[in-house]
């Protein structure tokens, strides 16, 4: 909806949606609508409320399609309950139009993070990838294909108790098995820079397409540009994507093998999302680590702290970079070459040492030597007292 359209309907800060959600301020927006920070007046908690593009002025069929797509997004997101996915709370009807009510996470996206750091270290990207892959594996198990994985849809909490927590968001064009097709299915949707080759050739997105898109996203934040480079001509970009002309990575280090596996042009040769998760986790943890060590945890840098780019204390810089589109201020694309030329890792990443929470058992074990010394001292003292008593007795 345009700002003038909002003014006519009175939608703005303090507006009460469905008699329950009071809008505070906009968090972001685009062609599909706007996302607001709002207060749930019933449960007294902050939520994110997605206002879809208004259907006012549309013909009945088009208006119905917009509402159905919004409801489908709500249903699909509600099927997924995962610590690394934004939770869907409610679909509120306001003047006959659906608003999506979601978990609010104060955060910045990977696209925003790249306005702070030109590229992100492989050890951090490996953790992000494994956590997002775990959430998407759960979505695939529920029969949901995301279809729009990109840096702008991966969020990292930048403050509060959840600092460093990773979440996948925006199931706006996701499809679930059994969803009825609509006219929009004949149009390629998503972001071309992260398309799988088969999608660029016009095939329907699948779970394996999501694997490729996640691989392309992780490649981008490590290398500083998408695997197909940057091109202001979206048609030329689509042609390169369709041919699978991936530029060999040069900075991915131990992530090289997992990423090249995910970026296989042939979907039959790509891993499942669960396999990709395990390979990404192994790149971060090494062969002796387990994927459960990083699930539900904040991401950590090589020094064992949450990365500076993920902290609200590190301000975002003004930048022309737009990683989610074909327009960018990034450096010129490197020439294409054979993936066999990609540099392979020499050794796995070294997982940072982190202080683990101490349990009651740990504290008891730590205090055992002191307790033993005290008991021995008491016994010795008791023996001395007893000896003295025996000596002085007549």
From TrEMBL:
- Ranges of Polar residues composition bias in the record: 314-328
Please provide, alphabetically and separated by semicolons, the GO molecular function terms listed in this UniProt record: ATP binding; protein serine/threonine kinase activity
Annotated transmembrane regions: 370-392
The segment annotated Disordered runs over: 312-345
Protein kinase domain sequence ranges: 21-285
Keywords (A to Z) from UniProt: ATP-binding, Kinase, Membrane, Nucleotide-binding, Serine/threonine-protein kinase, Transferase, Transmembrane, Transmembrane helix
Q: Which PANTHER family match?
A: MITOGEN-ACTIVATED PROTEIN KINASE KINASE KINASE 20-RELATED, SERINE_THREONINE-PROTEIN KINASE NEKL-3
Q: What is its EC number?
A: 2.7.11.1
* SMART domains documented for this protein: S_TKc (SM00220)
Q: Which InterPro entries match?
A: Kinase-like_dom_sf, Prot_kinase_dom, Protein_kinase_ATP_BS, Ser/Thr_kinase_AS
Name the record gives this protein: non-specific serine/threonine protein kinase
The entry marks the following residues as binding ATP, namely 50
Question: A Pfam family in this protein?
Answer: Pkinase
Taxonomically, the superkingdom here is Bacteria
